[in-house]
Amino acid sequence: METEKQGFTVMEIFIVILILGIIAAIIVPKFSQASSESRLEDLISDLQMVRSQIELYKIQHKELMPGQFAAGGYIEEEDFRFALTVKDDNGMGPYLSKIPRNYYIDDSKMRDAVTCVNDPEATPTGQEGTGWWFNAATGEFRACDSLFHAAY
Fold it and tell me: What are φ and ψ of residue 60, in 5° steps?
């Protein structure tokens, strides 16, 4: 009486594991790249949203920048944040529910922080330690986590 062996041999299991490893080596980097691209798309989307709301603020406030009390005046971060996220006495706003977070910043407390400057020649360096950079002299709003992202 012959008995048939059932199950897989060690060699068959090894081949299946090898094939699964090759497939994983091909797929995993694509997911990683998709994740990086998604984060960059989120950053660009946040920049476009904030910039459009800054423009709307300027139109509704006689060309003053958010947080500015006089034309050409310096802006403090708290005033900038307040002007964009709270309804004002004239019933305008809020323009944003909150300042978005820049997830390229390691310090979670600084992801939504904004460096405010008032120099038409200034540009972000990527070393500010905040998620965002706003120039009151030019109206530029940029990411400032790196020189690469500051170009957006």
Answer: -80, -10
Residue 2 lies in a domain: no
Decide if 5 is inside a domain: no
111-129: per-residue pLDDT in tens? 999 999 999 999 999 999 9
DSSP 12: H
Strands 141-143 and 114-117: unpaired
pTM across the whole model: 0.79
* Residues 54/81, Cβ–Cβ less than 8 Å: no
Question: Considering the domain boundaries, does residue 6 fall inside one?
Answer: no
Q: Is the peptide bond prior to 94 cis by the omega test (within 30 degrees of 0)? A: yes
Among residues 75, 97, 94, 77, the alpha carbon closest in space to that of 86 is found at 94
Would 61 be classed as within a structural domain? yes
> Are 149 and 104 in contact, with CB atoms under 8 Å apart?
yes
